Batch of 2 targets.
Target 1
Amino acid sequence: MSEFLAPYAVSEANSRGRQWPDGEALHRSPFQRDRDRIVHSTAFRRLEYKTQVFVNHEGDLFRTRLTHSLEVAQIARGIARALQLNEDLVEAISLAHDLGHTPFGHAGQDALNRCMRDHGGFEHNLQSLRTVDLLEERYAAFRGLNLCFETREGIVKHCSPDNARELGELGERFLNRTQPSLEAQICNLADEIAYNNHDVDDGLRAGLITLAQLEELELFAHHVAEVRRAYPTLESRRLIHETIRRMINALVCDLIETTQGRIAEASPIDLREVRLGERLVAFSASMHGAQQQMKTFLRKQLYQHYQVLRMTSKAQRVVNDLFSAFVSNPRLLPPQYLAFEDEEQTRRIADYIAGMTDRYAIREHQRLFEIGES
Ligand code: MG
């Protein structure tokens, strides 16, 4: 595989490797193994029942964290291949990037973060890392999945200086302001491309945003007009999907071409120079603007929509109630969630809650608070 890679790509040869000695696979690269370990993990299967924006039981067609992660992986792989970067690594990072998410999307994370305010807070990036480093129980020789440094680096997208200091080697780049690999940079933006576009799709399907509103946005307006010119009588679902696929394609192509230009200009000779230089994976200025406009629109019109907020407030109540019940009496926890030797009990409570799927959290809430449930 490495003969197809650019000299500044992450490869088996320049990888910083795994924490524990772990042999080598006969027919798979270390990053293929990482991807496989992630796909076989418990946390990965739970993504199926975790909310992206719409809670799982609101409808079978909405994205979940699982389908979101698959879309991110698909987009990121296409970009990586075009740029001769490590496709297996971007796939592994993409599939793992949301493993630490709580139930109920951002509402759940915000609620858990508030509950954990006096105990070091809760941050889904760091929880994803904790999941692959510590919480998965699948191997005899070590805790966690023992992933390669570069996969773990890609999972931690952002991080406060305080948290960075606790991460050791992995946190260094947040303190000395160097860059992660180009593969990690790709996953970051592939995530944005995926959620902006699928949230438009899901938002329209749910009837919370309208075509007329979207037509005020530069990127959507441009592509929907093109589709209408080519297919004047197209009915609305196909019109929407045809527009969205064109938006995704435009974003991906812009990202590839802009990044090619930036790489050519910076001409890094190896991975070390990628880390020491400017951030190279980027949209053009105009596409960045259009993408930001879409993000702002979604934040205001979809994520703050009263029907989404109602769900959000219920979700927060469930998380708050669970947290307080377990803090006031840790013996209500399943025994495997009693504190690890060196940690506060609250961190294990956060692990338990963060690991829950939407429906498990709702059931657990009923079991704890409704007389007659057990
Ligand atoms: Mg994501």
Target 2
Amino acid sequence: MGETRHTKLLIIGSGPAGYTAAVYGARAMLEPVLIQGIQPGGQLTITTEVENWPGEIEIQGPDLMIRMEEHARAVGTEIIADHVSSLDLSARPFTAETDSGTTWTCDALILATGAQAKWLGLPSEEKFKGFGVSACATCDGFFYRGQEVVVVGGGNTAVEEALFLTNFASKVTLIHRRDSLRSEKILQDRLFRNPKVEIMWDHTIEEIIGSDTPPGVEAVRARHVHSGEVTEVPCKGFFVAIGHAPASELVKDQLETHMGGYVVTRPDSTETSIPGVFAAGDLTDHKYRQAVTSAGMGCMAALEAERFIAEQAVE
Ligand code: FAD
Ligand code: NAP
């Protein structure tokens, strides 16, 4: 049997939301404990340049996350390299079981487990991730000024990404596996009107083609779903926009979720459907999915958790 430990504030997740919550929680003298999970530093550790974190014209994603970890630790957060395997939110204190066998109990809980982009699952996609293959146009679009790019997907994300990319790219080809988009009509209208956009209906992606030295994308091979005809579309950037999966497995039967698993929070708040449980970052955010917005929500969660803990002490 592992040990059981108690903390006033437990934070699950070590992305921008988790570390920011930790900084605020520690500075409020809550002595928070943060459990990092299997991806210490979160999604930004799998990217290179980050050019939209205020105060840094350019910083490598992994370096930014190391600095956030150092900051959280320096102000008094206990950072634990472990993964939460289950949560019990049915009674207070809340209970978290971890892979190492330690059981954590806490008075307030901040969930910051993030989300993961869905990928096509092609070996060539894996090979060129970070070298032309991306799942974030807001992050990487800037690198494709004056070049041709391809976006795959047919939802709001794909259409928004395609439209955003027209700000930089010379041409954006949207490839979709059906003959109609599922995105909002207003976005579709905007897309259809944009002279830089070409749409390839009824095509699936077979392979991303590129060079090894230096590594980089040169084209994608797409197959027509009915005729089987194969077309090579030249591009320097290939953006996968087929949806995101919020990491809400731990709480999906305990908290209210929507839109494919995003944790519901009250408007202008990080409060979830259970008092004392707060959610921040991509776990709750189907819309913005940015480091800075995640950090902002982490701050809000810590301030709300602090207030919650203080109110419980008075009762
Ligand atoms: P994440 O960063 O997703 O972190 C989630 C954390 O939760 C991880 O540490 C994980 O280990 C932990 N976790 C999950 N499950 C458990 C569990 N069961 N137990 C314990 N821990 C758990 N945004 C920008 O603003 N600018 C950019 O340039 C940019 N570039 C990007 C490039 C790429 C390739 C990707 C994928 C995303 C990029 N983003 C960028 C988006 C940005 O990374 C996310 O919006 C942000 O990281 C979300 O932060 P978060 O704290 O909510 O969660
Ligand atoms: P989504 O709505 O689930 O759409 C995913 C798209 O990718 C679909 O068109 C789907 O095709 C396609 N797709 C899925 N798997 C695929 C695969 N393996 N190969 C090829 N194509 C594949 O996801 P999303 O666009 O990320 O949106 C998620 C949620 O966030 C939605 O509720 C959306 O409304 C919301 N959102 C809102 C906004 C906004 O309000 N501005 C912006 C972004 C997202 P099919 O159509 O054939 O299924």
